[in-house]
């Protein structure tokens, strides 16, 4: 893209900032909570409308769960880019919101200046709405994009994309012409604007331990005092979990866990080296209330761990009565 064209688009976005900001806030105020279903269809319709207003065609495709927003923008170009994103969010049950998480109000925040405070501001309704506003600005000035676009905006990402795999298997022809994919999950953290060149996948699993012939109560919980002579399945679970990882969480001991990890290609290695200079480790620790990293590394090598190394994490653990 020519530099003059980029300057023109950025100037247009500056001139129309207040309108764009209002549209982002309006989109964020739709609850779209996939865990409860609240606002899901209304938000899916809003995404469909954004695609149409940007000049594309769109429809809601039903799944056993939440609908997927599918759309196309045919520019007669040689290449086609798949735009993946999500319109669902988590609930907002935390008690320390500084304003209503569903109002998307603007507040001065720490030393970052004015920020939208609300569920989905970062992950990922804010970037999704901003992407469509940028897309509209480009087409307003240039009319045609240099690539065709196919849209897949799902509503179950926060539920581990439960319906997506089957949907893709059943609808391969809708994406057969796509040459690459872009997930508009850009943002600014510690005053560093970032566009990720790739993301790690997620595999989730659940372990359950219960009593039986080995010991422990079989069908129901019993009083903790009986631990004096009855084994506790929770201890079995904790011991099983502890065998999966080394002492400092930097050595995952599941057979085959590290198999198949591909090295970075030269282009990505170069980009990683360039971006490592932007990492302010002290500022990051302060922002996330962390005293130290688990790796005795710094700079590029620490940055590599964050962006390229697979991890094993406990999402939650419970046992017995915890009310």
Descriptive overview:
This protein is α/β, with parallel strands linked by helices. It has helices spanning 3-15, 17-28, 40-53, 125-142, 164-170, 233-242, 266-276, 281-287, 299-308, and strands at residues 57-61, 68-73, 80-86, 105-109, 113-117, 148-154, 180-182, 187-189, 192-194. The strands form three sheets. A five-stranded mixed sheet has the order 1-2-6-3-7, covered by helices on one side. α1 (3-15) crosses α4 (125-142). The model has no long low-confidence stretch (mean pLDDT 92).
Q: What form results from the Cα inertia axes?
A: globular
Work out the helix count: 9
Strand order of the largest sheet: 1-2-6-3-7
The biggest beta sheet reads: 5 strands, mixed
Report the span from N to C terminus: 58 Å
Report Rg: 23 Å
Structural class of the secondary structure composition? alpha/beta
Ranges where pLDDT stays below 50 over 5 or more residues in a row are: none
What percentage of amino acids are in beta strands? 5-15%
How many beta-strand runs?
9
Order of helices and strands: HHHEEEEEHEHEEEHHHH
């Amino acid at each position: 893209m020519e530099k003059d064209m980029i300057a023109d688009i950025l100037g247009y976005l500056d001139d129309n900032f207040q309108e764009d900001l209002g549209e982002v806030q309006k989109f964020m105020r739709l609850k779209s909570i996939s865990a409860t279903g609240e606002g899901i269809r209304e938000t899916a319709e809003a995404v469909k409308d954004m695609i149409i207003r940007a000049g594309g065609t769109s429809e809601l495709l039903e799944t056993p769960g939440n609908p997927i927003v599918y759309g196309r923008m045919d520019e007669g170009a040689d290449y086609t880019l798949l735009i993946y994103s999500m319109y669902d969010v988590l609930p907002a049950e935390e008690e320390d919101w500084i304003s209503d998480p569903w109002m998307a109000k603007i507040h001065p925040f720490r030393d970052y200046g004015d920020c939208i405070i609300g569920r989905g501001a970062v992950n990922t309704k804010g970037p999704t709405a901003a992407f469509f506003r940028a897309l509209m600005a480009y087409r307003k000035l240039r009319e045609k994009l240099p690539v065709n676009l196919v849209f897949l905006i799902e509503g179950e990402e926060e539920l581990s994309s439960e319906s997506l795999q089957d949907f893709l298997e059943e609808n391969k022809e809708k994406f057969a012409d796509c040459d690459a994919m872009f997930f508009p999950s850009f943002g600014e953290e510690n005053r560093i604007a970032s566009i990720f060149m790739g993301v790690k996948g997620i595999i989730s699993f659940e372990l359950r331990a219960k009593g039986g012939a080995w010991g422990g109560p079989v069908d129901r919980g019993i009083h903790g005092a009986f631990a004096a002579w009855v084994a506790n399945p929770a201890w079995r679970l904790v011991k099983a979990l502890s065998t999966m990882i080394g002492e400092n969480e930097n050595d995952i001991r599941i057979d085959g866990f590290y198999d198949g990890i591909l090295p970075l290609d030269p282009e990505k290695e170069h980009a990683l080296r360039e971006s490592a200079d932007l990492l302010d480790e002290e500022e990051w620790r302060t922002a996330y209330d962390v005293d130290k990293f688990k790796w005795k590394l710094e700079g590029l090598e620490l940055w590599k761990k964050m962006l390229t190394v697979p991890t094993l994490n406990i999402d939650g653990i419970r046992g017995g009565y915890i009310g």
